[in-house]
Amino acid sequence: MSSISIFGLGAMGTALARTLLKNGHTVTVWNRTRSRAEPLAGAGAKIAESPTEAIAASELTILCLVDYPAARAVLEQAQEALAGRDLLNLTNGTPGDARELGTWLAARGAIYLDGGIMAIPPMIGGAGALILYSGSRALFDRHSSTLEALAESRHLGEDEGLASLYDIALLSGMYGLFSGFLHASALVTSAGGKAVDFLPLLLPWIEAMSGTLPDLAGKIDSGMHGRDVVSNIAMQKIALENIVRASEEQGVAPDFMRPMLRLAGDRVDSGGHGDDISAVVEVIRKRK
Ligand code: FVH
Questions:
Q1: Is the pLDDT of residue 85 over 80?
Q2: 94 lines ligand 1 (CB under 6 A)
Q3: How far is CA 107 from CA 21, 96, 104, 112, 140, in A?
Q4: At what angle do helices 233-249 and 258-269 cross, to 10 degrees?
Q5: Where does this protein have coiled-coil stretches (predicted)?
Q6: 0.90 cut: is pTM over it?
Q7: What phi and psi, each to the nearest 5 degrees, are found at residue 46?
Q8: Does residue 9's CB lie within 6 angstroms of at least one atom of ligand 1?
Q9: DSSP calls for 33-49
Q10: Which of 81, 102, 108, 122 sits between 20 and 30 A of 203, alpha carbons compared?
Q11: What span, in angstroms and rounded, lies between the C-alpha atoms of 61 and 86?
């Protein structure tokens, strides 16, 4: 069993602390608003009076704050305690945020691992929770059994920005799914249908279309977008135009669909008629 300090006792930090306590670890907590720490003291956690005291108390310190400026503000209060300490930051941010914090911590002698939590608080410590890590592999290995108590763990590499990059990429997939679902639901309900009644049609369709992703991924990696194309992008551009026109006819804003139409159109206009939809990646990679 190891000793862990946790900074940030919002919904996620509290779930992390409770799971570690349940697994028999020694947990020290610190939160800007002290009253949020008190229920955890009842469950066996020690409350630190300052960030410095919390870092000194444990082999590993975990930060789970609202954003990077908050994480940095807390660490700045404990600069004298950082040298030689293991720090894991599970605060959500960008790859650049993680790399910048890693550089700042390295200059103060701390060892840094960044993490991206692919779970909501009730999932922590249970099946289906995943945390992506990047940064110090040595830190990850030293604390692997502690980390496994929180979620399945995957270390992606020494570049501190990778966990955040993959976290953001997974969230992008999720929001793509949500935006498609929301648009489809707006269309169906515009004609008096019910979103719940539409789901038995939508879910198998999404599952069937998910089956095309390995082929599209291979085309993205090889750049061979014109190989073995079943549904070319020129045809799909017309389907997207029809979606936009149908939405307008039904009084549904086509805001989710217009960007996809524009990007597919760009590829067609630059001579990619026969390509697969995977070729849209070439268009967006070039845009800053
Ligand atoms: N909750 C979720 O579903 C998601 C799942 C995926 C990962 N996220 C990320 O986890 C980070 C924390 O999220 P959270 O849900 O725990 O957030 P809150 O409940 O809002 O708690 C925020 C904590 O941050 C503290 N805090 C805010 N500003 C400051 C500051 N300037 N200095 C020090 N601490 C600060 C706040 O303290 P207090 O308001 O109680 O004093 C809370 O402890 C987040 O990155 C998610 O994206 C969660």
A1: yes
A2: no
A3: 32, 17, 5, 11, 20
A4: 150
A5: none
A6: yes
A7: -95, 140
A8: yes
A9: SGGGTHHHHHTTPEEPS
A10: 122
A11: 6
Averaged over 86-108, what is the pLDDT? 98
d(CA 137, ligand 1 centre) in Å: 26
Rounded Cα gap, residues 226 and 277, in angstroms: 10
Task: Please indicate whether residue 32, judged by its CB atom, sits closer than 6 Å to ligand 1.
Answer: yes
Determine the pLDDT at residue 249: 98
CATH of 3-159, one of 3.40.1390.10, 3.40.640.10, 3.20.20.140, 3.40.50.720: 3.40.50.720
For residue 12, give the ligand 1 atom closest to its CA.
16
What is the separation, in whole angstroms, between the first and last Cα of the chain?
47
| Domain 166-285 annotated CATH 3.40.109.10 | no
Is pLDDT above 90 for 1?
A: no
pLDDT recorded at residue 287: 65
| pLDDT single digits (tens) 201-221 | 999 999 999 999 999 999 999
Domain parsing of the chain, residue ranges: 3-159, 166-285
Select from 9, 65, 72 the residue to mutate for testing ligand 1; criterion: most ligand atoms less than 8 Å from CB. Answer: 65
Tell me if 3-159 shares its fold with 166-285: no
